[in-house]
Amino acid sequence: MNRDELAQAIIDLENGQFGPLEDEQLAQELGQHLKPLIDQGVSFHTPSPSHRSQETDEPLDRELGPAKPPVRTPVRFDGPTPEIATLSNRDRARWIFMERFIPPEQLETIIGCVFSPEESDRHNRELDEFLDRLFLLTDVASALEACDLPALQKMFSSTLILMRHKELGDGENGRLPCSIENLRLRFDAYFYKRRSVPNWYEEQSFYSEPLERSQWVLCEIDYLNCTLRSPEKRLSNYARTWSLPSSSSVQKSALEDIYDRIICGEALQEHLFEQNCNSCTTTQYDKGMGVHHSVYTVQKDRKIAIHGKVGLPRWRTSRRLWPGVYPTLIP
Fold this sequence. Notes:
Blueprint: H1 3-14, H2 24-42, H3 89-97, H4 104-111, H5 117-134, H6 138-145, H7 149-155, E1 159-164, E2 167-169, E3 175-177, H8 180-186, E4 215-220, E5 224-225, H9 231-241, E6 249-250, H10 254-268, E7 277-286, E8 292-300, E9 303-309, E10 322-325, E11 328-329
Parallel strand pairs: 7-10
Antiparallel strand pairs: 1-4, 2-3, 4-11, 5-10, 6-11, 7-8, 8-9
Helix pairs in contact: 1-2
């Protein structure tokens, strides 16, 4: 049998992409391959881990356990559906994305920064320019021309719009650079605590490195599985589905990944990125032996864990998390 076809079928099942298998032998072999995992899942008990990596900050009692599927906010309408052709791009975004469109006013409250009139004008102008580019994408423009709001909502059902702001409020009418360190100070409930020793990543330079600039982005909520294909290939294919060049689909840094999780959680009161995924980022660090280690994140029960290792993490029965990336689309 074709090993790649079997692996892709397993990945499709994991991502909820169900459909009949025309190859009877492939279907039989797939069932035989999955049965031990299903049996194991039914009688699943949390084992005591014999060891743990240095590059982890999760408590032992949270090391294992079945992942929860993401909870999606249902689409809600207030009043009759409008004629979308008559709306401004900002109002179109509100109807298409619903709660998953996080406007500057809401972001201002979450991060604790009071924007000056000049800042508000700039953020709103940049948002309008972002929406202009987004709504000019081929499939999006066709749906807009047809005034097909359901098609647009379906097209963007697994995405959200937010601005990554380069500053955070410090609680005293001042501002701090947006970094993992300062996010942890402001949103401590999202991070694991250590009673005696610091988290391993606090000694790394990426912990205090600030976000370079503020920017509006479209964030994909569903991760791209990188078990068989590299993040670069997955991201390139993702950009192609939007009829965009590969450069428009960007892998997140550790800071961007953590920022998106927190802002999403605070704005929606739902943790949509909390999936069975080792989120691979572009952030790297050197342990002094000339070997670059990559940073990846995991979220469970709201808490964000930061890990590091050489290469991509792998799926294993004791820790059922797929290696993947959450793309950022910048049209």
